[in-house]
Design a protein that fits this description.
Helices cover 55% and strands 5% of the residues. With 442 residues, the protein is mainly α. Helix 19 crosses helix 22.
Length: 442
Amino acid sequence: MNANPSVIVYAGPSVPSRLVQTLLPDCTLRPPIRRGDLYRDRERGGTLFVLLDGVLIQEPALPLREIIDVLQDGATIIGASSMGALRAAECWPAGMQGVGTIYRLFRRGSLQSDDEVILTFAAEDDYRPLSVALINIRYALRRAVQSQRLAAGQAAQIIEHAETLHFSARRWPTLLAHAGIQDNALQTFLSEQDLKQRDAIRALQRVAQGLARSAYALTARRSQHLFVPSEAQREQAYAITAGLESVALKQDVARWQLISGRYTRYITAIAAASPSSELAERLARKRELDVILDGLAFTREQVGEVAATRQAYQQSAALRWVLLELWQTAATVDFAENLWAELQTSGELSAELFRWRAITAGAREARQRGLQVRRADVFLAEAEIAHAHGFHSWRMLRQNSASAPYPWADFEDYRNQLALAKRLREALFKPADYSSCGSINP
């Protein structure tokens, strides 16, 4: 059956792509949703959207305003499993439909944090999960207790430990070993319990049944105007710079951007508009595929032998390599001025300045309160910085920083500052403790 461009599913680690195509063969399958995807796909004719997975920390997440705008434009949006369940619980008053146990738990307040559904995955391997979502840990342990494979006290102990771990460290061998349990049969049983996938399947089945009986109104757009992102409409109630746009302020912002990695959002536009950057010439010189991909921790096996795939990886890797070169030479007054101009043009100046000041103030407040960073705070800070720079890990960023525009000690200082800010946020807004495995009862 040909794909229906008006029915779009955003899926990743919650459900294998082959299962999506089996349950809903006429859909258009997209990667995990991110900011701007709904606007784009609605403008291209999408009418029914199924949100299962979405980015949370790697890239800008899907905002509520985008969902509301697309709903008001006449589209149908259904959420389940992961990001979809979270957003459906937030946007149901606006007309978004939720499906499944995880959606119901979020909606009634039994779950409140995106930490419940976030995990690590291998994007190049059909988004294969590399860790276990906290909600799946709760669900699996409850099943184990119900089937008398595990005592309730042991389950509670495992959950309590899982809640203290960074989401990337939540794996069954680690959790069971910490609890002093060596039981391969139990580990296999727990690994097979997947509430996120179960909810994703429920949602896809419901959509397939609804389409079969024409239950969904596949409504065309009510307006042909392009959507305007909320950040472009945001009212400026005050002057974010307090009237000061000194060279020193611009250089401070540029330094923060270059160390935090947020510069990657803007440097391509800056380089493309600046003849002195020689962007095209730099790209033309980067044709040594093996060298480029080795530098990005790719292998020939990962790239594959299909010419189109190799070319796509080559182009992406070449651009990343050139941006790394530009990064290494960007600590100049000219870059600071060009960055400031790009932030103003893109409408992101206020947001970036607010983020910069919030991190600085948050770290200062954390010190005043005597808060101590934890390993999880440091891990999150390192991951955020490394990913923003385009590297898979803090170690890879360190390896590629020899010619960075600032000494490595500056990166470590910012890592510590960001970790303190995250610690303060946790102290101020820590969600309620849902340590009881009894909270899940689908």
